[in-house]
């Protein structure tokens, strides 16, 4: 299959390229970037020297590929699709932005969380890849919603690495501010809350309790650790069994019997979950790499499902990215 990447100079595109150059069924036809057009791809994604001979292009070759990945900023994917409509009828699209994650009239994107929508993803044409925080938090909550026991407020404290803010430098992303520092942002109003609530209601219709989410900027490059708790009658043993049962057929989600740490998932497409009971509250620890299971790794996982390949193809080895 031939694929193209739109918005190829950023962190998620770099991770995507690292995965695709090792994918046995994929030929990367073009990497699009207006800002880097003409430069060799490995001049921007320097660890790919010797792995990819392409240069960035500002031209589009949509008729020549089977699939495109949209790795642009939020709001840009919708503009791109409007500008280039109609798309070739055979072309499949995986969008890594926020633009199509929420259901609304006028678009036919499937929400691409395999642990929730695997059967819908298989054979689909348009996929909205989930957000990174949203992935970690949903994986912590889906087994509860599936058993109809998510009946109280949910409290989430989650910390993310600096790559979650993208490659463009900013006041809260440059090294001298981020290093040896930590801060809260978008408390109770993070943009991923909408897709989290949408997914919970898909399993537990009528769920209307608050999800109290405190996002935190961490002083490390990559990874997300979410600590989630809510009132629940399950014991630790019951919760562990329910979580293991729910994720039995999902190869990248592991339910740990020991309290995990972030380094266990960084540079992998794994999600690591751990549950324990404290009085009437169930605590769920959820950990992912924000650039892989939270973005590009999940996009490749969705691609594998679309085309009927083994879900884990090109995703078992650790990434060599930063």
From TrEMBL:
Pathway(s) it belongs to: Amino-acid biosynthesis; L-arginine biosynthesis; N(2)-acetyl-L-ornithine from L-glutamate: step 3/4
Gene (UniProt): argC
Main subcellular location: cytoplasm
UniProt-listed Pfam families: Semialdhyde_dh (PF01118), Semialdhyde_dhC_1 (PF22698)
Keyword NADP attributed: yes
Protein keywords: Amino-acid biosynthesis, Arginine biosynthesis, Cytoplasm, NADP, Oxidoreductase
Gene3D superfamilies: Dihydrodipicolinate Reductase, domain 2, NAD(P)-binding Rossmann-like Domain
Species lineage: Bacteria, Pseudomonadati, Bacteroidota, Cytophagia, Cytophagales
Protein name: N-acetyl-gamma-glutamyl-phosphate reductase
Membrane-spanning segments: none
Subcellular location field: Cytoplasm
Entry's EC annotation: 1.2.1.38
Biological process, per Gene Ontology: L-arginine biosynthetic process
Keyword RNA-binding included in the entry's annotation: no
Residues annotated as catalytic: 132
Source organism (scientific name): Microscilla marina ATCC 23134
UniProt-recorded Gene Ontology molecular function terms: N-acetyl-gamma-glutamyl-phosphate reductase activity; NAD binding; NADP+ binding
Domain Semialdehyde dehydrogenase NAD-binding stretches: 2-124
């Amino acid at each position: 299959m031939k694929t193209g990447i739109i918005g190829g100079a950023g962190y998620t595109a770099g991770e995507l390229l690292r995965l695709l150059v090792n994918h046995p069924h994929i030929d990367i036809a073009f990497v699009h970037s207006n800002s880097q057009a003409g430069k060799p791809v490995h001049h921007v994604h320097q660890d790919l020297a010797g792995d990819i001979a392409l240069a960035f292009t500002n031209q589009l070759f949509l008729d020549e590929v089977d699939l495109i990945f949209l790795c642009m900023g939020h709001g840009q994917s919708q503009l791109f699709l409007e500008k280039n409509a109609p798309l070739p009828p055979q072309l499949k699209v995986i969008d890594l932005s926020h633009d199509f994650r929420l259901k609304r009239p006028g678009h036919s994107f499937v929400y691409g969380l395999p642990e929730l929508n695997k059967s819908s993803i298989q054979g689909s044409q348009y996929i909205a890849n989930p957000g990174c925080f949203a992935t970690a938090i949903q994986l912590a909550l889906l087994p509860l919603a599936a058993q109809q026991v998510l009946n109280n407020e949910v409290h989430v404290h989650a910390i993310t690495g600096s790559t979650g803010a993208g490659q463009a430098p900013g006041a809260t992303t440059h090294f001298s501010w981020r290093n040896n520092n930590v801060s809260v942002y978008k408390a109770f109003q993070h943009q991923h809350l909408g897709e989290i609530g949408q997914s919970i209601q898909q399993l537990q219709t009528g769920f209307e309790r608050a999800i109290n989410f405190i996002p935190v900027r961490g002083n490390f490059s990559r990874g997300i650790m979410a600590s989630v708790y809510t009132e629940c009658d399950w014991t630790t043993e019951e919760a562990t069994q329910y979580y293991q049962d729910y994720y039995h057929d999902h190869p990248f989600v592991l339910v740990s019997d020991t309290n995990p740490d972030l380094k266990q998932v960084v540079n992998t497409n794994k999600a690591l979950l751990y549950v324990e009971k404290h009085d009437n509250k169930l605590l769920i620890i959820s950990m992912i790499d924000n650039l892989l299971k939270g973005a590009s790794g999940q996009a490749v996982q969705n691609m594998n499902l679309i085309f009927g390949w083994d879900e884990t193809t090109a995703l078992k080895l650790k990434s060599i990215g930063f």
